[in-house]
Amino acid sequence: MSHRNFEKFANTRLGKVSARGASLLSVLIFSGCSCFAFAQASRVPDIFKPASTPAESIHRLSLFVLIITALIFVVVFSLLVYAVGKFRHRAPEDGREPPQVYGSNQMELAWTVVPVLIVLVLFFATARVIHSIQQAVRPPGTIEVTAIGHQFWWEFRYPALGVVTANELHIPVSDPAHRTPTFITLSSADTDHSFWVPQLAGKTDLIPNRINSIWMEPNETGMYVGQCAQYCGTQHAKMLLRIYVDSPEGFSKWIAAQKQVANPAGSVAAGRHIFEKTACINCHAVSGTVADGRFGPDLTHLMSRETIASGAASNTHENLKLWIHSPDSIKPGALMPAMNLNERDLEAVTAYLESLP
Amino acid sequence: MSSESIALTAAGAPSRPLSDLLYSWVTTVDHKRLGILYILYAISFLVIGGIEATIMRIQLIVPHNHFVSPQTFNRMFTMHGTTMIFFVAMPVLFGFGNYLIPLMIGARDMAFPRLNAWSFWLTAFGGLLLYFSFIGGNGLYGAGSAPDVGWFAYAPLTAKTFSIGHSTDFWTLGLLVSGFGSIGAAVNFVATIVCLRCPGMNFGKMPLLVWLNLVMGAMVLLVISPLTAAQVMLSLDRFLGAHFFDTQAGGSAVLWMHFFWIFGHPEVYVLVIPAFAFISEIVPVFSRKPIFGYPVMVAATVGIGFVSFGVWAHHMFTIGMNSYANSFFVITTMVVGVPTGIKIFNWLGTMWGGKLQFKTPMLFCIGFLFQFLIAGLTGIMLSAAPFDWQLGNSYFVVAHFHYVIVGGILFALFGAFYYWFPKMSGHLYNERLGKLHFWLFLLGFHLTFDFMHIPGILGMPRRIYTYEPGRGWDIWNFIVTVGVFFQAVAILIFVANLLFSMFKGKLAGNDPWDAWTLEWSTSSPPPEYNFARIPVVRSRRPLWDLKHPEDPDWRYE
């Protein structure tokens, strides 16, 4: 069955029933992971709960593969169980050996040809999805984003929109009438990383000296979690990733806010002074100020983010202070050094950072 | 064929001092002793690798656990993977091959006994080098460490920039040295099988185990070279400032992936083909029937061997290859399923209509068949590249390849241990303890590796030392860790059973299983020269012919 036929099939009533059957099978095979996922909020990055185009076509393909593999399993497993039960040696021992059978060419032919046919079907279904995802064309409303992997955080740039942010990516939901998919160009500043938000798309690696790309066309707003999926060093585990799928208006509003230049109030001038006179600015940028480092996340709109330290902690006063004071207590092995500020300076810098919109 | 033995030493000679015994084992060139050395060496590393796995599983039992530091955890998974592949699986399979091949083809030793000893000691030295990194990993920089780059050591994590000290160098040199050992062993396997078969044993009459080890040996000769080349390049990068994989100087991270996986994937078959070999010997004996479709089994194995050299980039579906390259590796990978399926059906065909005896080795073989079936099917899922874009590098993959290596290879190995233990030691193992080992290990295995698939489906990547609560992963990780303890107890029972039986077990006699291949025609344990007279065979089951002169196999072959 070609994949096109499969999609047609999937849309028929029988197809829907068998798709449901496949879901059920997958639930049975993997002991109810999907059921468990229901109990949790949408924070479970379940690959069987896609919310975007490439993740959905992968989901359909995976159900198809699951049906076929489940059928093979049932057939072979039944044969095994039957053989074990039926041909069990029973007392009393008559001392005779069973008939000595050396083989059968017809049987061999049968269990060669049938698997070959199954492989062909699976291959064509798979190749079609590969091409549909990798050869996708960019419609006029496409949002272009550049993602750069760092040890251990994500840098996001919107070149056409002039916005820079980190760790929390905002993209618009796509309306079939006015499609606004997001195409992300992937590269790395240091080691290999992998961009994976299961409900939106499969993963693609970020590799130094190489440009990769990934795209997603979400059809539901919401926050989707993911994380780095290629071991990249000590804190690979806390290189978390969030994608906020906003309504078109919400997305425009977010972009407009991100474009504003920081304009800190006078009350945090002390903190700003310390920030700009210490090593902070070697790595961090705050647009409109002398801080233009690029080794660490851009802090211009730090308070617009829900988390710090690439998702390792929520963005609260205490966490921010702790992070500046002792990054190792949140993320041991992170590349941000402890700043060794005294309590007064620490409080001042934290206040300054909290004034960044 | 003969079970008579020739006394080389005077009977009742006084027992020698321990130092003499040790000396005789260290300097031995006897294939049986070297085989046992390989096996003992592998079992010690199995315990070490198992402890490393247990440390990781304790760390992951609950989210945000603080059992070990991230640095330690990263070292544990690197050492666990490297140890289990290179210093457990490879040596234990070489050990069985070494022990069994000359006995099964009616030879007195391997073709190159001194090369054989040299290969073992190189492999052993490689493992020691790797573990020396715990002491010497940071060299002058300070306290000990171990490599933390992962067992496939992707560039540029191995570059000087990201891996200071010498832990990566110990990893590189350890694998380089043991790689030379593997090549020596493979040369010996191939030469022995091609040149030393007893009269009458042409290629069509070799036991399947011998055939499969021939394929395995030939594959080792091919696959170790790219690994060795990559390790040499990496050492040049690290010591002499070459830039093969140093991305900061324009090197290529993807080049390392190609080099590693063109070794790494055929390596999986290097490990699994000897496991197939055990199944192909044990299942017929405990089904009381000859192997079903012998020529097809040989052809399927050779087929797997060839195809396995064209599938390596399915480990790289996520690196952004173009759609045509991805499609190519999808079809080659799926095609491997065909000969593998043929093998499973032939084993079922062997059992079909037989009189199955559920001794411990057979139980492990049935466990193998069940688990290898599932491992193959999850392999089909992963071979569909888009599905792999979701599942790749997640816990689903970890579960899949542990299904192959533990559920498949290790189960087959346990079967082999119990099956040939009477031959190696001269004593029977305790059947009750053997069965307890089987059922406990089966339970632990399924608790751990069945439930490990689920967090992968729910988006949990591998190699993370901790995870966020509330992602639906907690309960599954808990169950997975619980399973580990059942497996550990089962392994203890296994070791205890073998140790106890070695000294107290009932005498086995030459042929406790009423089996059909040549190793059962000589005494248990076999004398140093194996056979007093070189046997002559007329069929694949020479002992069947001997026991059933009225209906010998050679009439039908």
What's the shape of chain A? elongated
Structural class of chain A: alpha+beta
Largest sheet of chain A: 5 strands, mixed
CATH architecture of the largest domain in chain A: Sandwich
The radius of gyration over CA of chain B amounts to: 24 Å
How many separate domains make up the residues of chain B? 1
- Write down the Rg of chain A: 27 Å
N-to-C order of helices and strands of chain A:
HHHHHEEEEEEEEEEHHHEEHH
The N- and C-terminal alpha carbons of chain A lie at a distance of: 54 Å
Task: Walk me through this protein's architecture.
- The complex is a heterodimer of chains A (357) and B (557).
- Chain A is of the alpha+beta class and 357 residues long.
- Chain A folds into three domains: 3-82 and 108-134, no CATH class; 143-259, Immunoglobulin-like (Sandwich); 266-354, Immunoglobulin-like.
- In chain A, 40% of the residues lie in helices and 16% in strands.
- Chain A has ten helices and twelve strands.
- In chain A, the strands form four sheets. Chain A has a five-stranded mixed sheet with strand order 3-2-1-5-8. Chain A has a three-stranded mixed sheet with strand order 4-10-9.
- In chain A, a hairpin with a 4-residue loop joins strand 2 (153-158) and strand 3.
- In chain A, helix 1 packs across helix 2 (13-29) and helix 7 (269-277) crosses helix 10 (343-354).
- The longest helix of chain A is centred in the first third of the chain and has 34 residues, at 53-86.
- The N and C termini of chain A lie far apart (54 Å).
- Residues 1-41 of chain A have low confidence and may be disordered.
- Chain B has 16 helices and no strands.
- The longest helix of chain B has 35 residues, at 70-104.
- Chains A and B meet through helix 3, helix 4, helix 5 and strand 9 of A and helix 3, helix 7, helix 8, helix 9 and helix 10 of B.
